[in-house]
Specification:
InterPro entries: TPR-like_helical_dom_sf (IPR011990), TPR_rpt (IPR019734)
Number of helices: 15
Helix content: over 70%
Keywords: Lipoprotein, TPR repeat
Structural class: mainly alpha
CATH architecture of the domain at 145-221: Alpha Horseshoe
CATH superfamily of the domain at 145-221: Tetratricopeptide repeat domain
Pfam family, one: TPR_6
TPR repeats: 172-205, 235-268
Number of strands: 0
Largest sheet: none
Organism: Pseudooceanicola batsensis (strain ATCC BAA-863 / DSM 15984 / KCTC 12145 / HTCC2597) (Oceanicola batsensis)
CATH topology of the domain at 145-221: Serine Threonine Protein Phosphatase 5, Tetratricopeptide repeat
Length: 281
């Protein structure tokens, strides 16, 4: 007894095998290349997020030797150098990215950021000036504000900070920077408000807490603000407040605050002990 269905299936299989045999080696290679690109992309992301920064630098340097013109690898190297705190090399790497024919406005912003990290403020200013004004991003305006600060262009600085705050859902860091800008200008009350806002957005931002205490100390307000803090943070803030009191000439108040800092800290607080000894000596 014949089974037509089986015959048809076998014929279909034979035709499929025949079609497969006509597939070129080049097509197969291209298919494998596509898979490799996906795998490599995942590896790139891993190296940029959870990998050791210096290991990431080595990885991207090695990969770039085989693919010297691929901009995503150039970006990976530049970002890794920033993460590894190698600012001069990072600035050079971002310059190469920014000079690439596929570079974007955001690459120019990252180049300016790397230049600032390397202390090349004037050059960073020039790079930002060359970016179209239609490219409005949080990072761009944060950098513009920092450069305006460095040039003591306070009106521009405030405008850029305000714009940057409106372009991010996590403004704690930029509010802290803005507050520090006000602190350096001697506008202590406004600085205090901005530091408090920064802490509201990011309760774990200790830099803003410390700056808030500095702003209060500059106004001879030596009480700790009502903000979330761990016991060790409280001790450190009391230490900062004590030193601020001494700077204002209120030495006895400073000594009292330093003693409180030593008593508050859950472990031995060497910095506060050293400061108190210096005052007593």
């Amino acid at each position: 007894m014949r089974h037509p269905g089986i015959v048809i299936s076998c014929l279909a299989g034979a035709l499929a095998l025949s079609a497969c045999s006509k597939t070129s080696t080049g097509e197969v290679n291209r298919a494998f290349q596509d898979v490799n690109v996906v795998d490599e992309s995942n590896l790139n992301d891993i190296m940029l997020t959870v990998g050791d920064p210096n290991e990431a630098v080595v990885y991207f340097q090695r990969t770039l030797k085989d693919n010297p013109d691929r901009i995503e690898l150039m970006r990976g190297l530049a970002e890794s150098l920033v993460r590894a705190k190698r600012p001069t090399e990072a600035a050079s790497a971002w310059r190469r990215v920014a000079s690439h024919e596929e570079a974007t406005a955001e690459d120019q912003v990252d180049f300016a950021d790397a230049l600032i990290r390397d202390g090349q403020w004037e050059r960073a200013d020039g790079v930002l000036d060359g970016i179209p004004p239609t490219h409005e991003t949080y990072k761009r305006y944060r950098l513009e504000a920092m450069i305006a600060d460095s040039n003591k262009e306070w009106t521009k600085s405030d405008s850029f900070y305000e714009t940057a705050v409106g372009l991010t859902t996590r403004p704690g860091g930029v509010l802290n920077n803005w507050g520090y800008s006000k602190l350096t200008r001697g506008d202590f009350a406004e600085a205090e408000k901005l530091f408090a806002q920064a802490i509201q957005h990011d309760p774990d931002l200790f830099t803003a807490k410390n700056n808030l205490v500095l702003a209060r100390g500059a106004q001879r307000n030596y009480s700790l603000p009502v903000i979330p803090m761990q016991q060790s943070e409280r001790a450190q803030l009391l230490h900062t407040l004590g030193l601020s009191a001494v700077k204002q000439g209120d030495v006895e108040t400073g000594k009292t605050l330093l003693r409180e800092a030593i008593e508050t800290h859950p472990q031995h607080f060497e910095d506060a002990v050293r400061s108190l000894r210096a005052l007593q000596g």
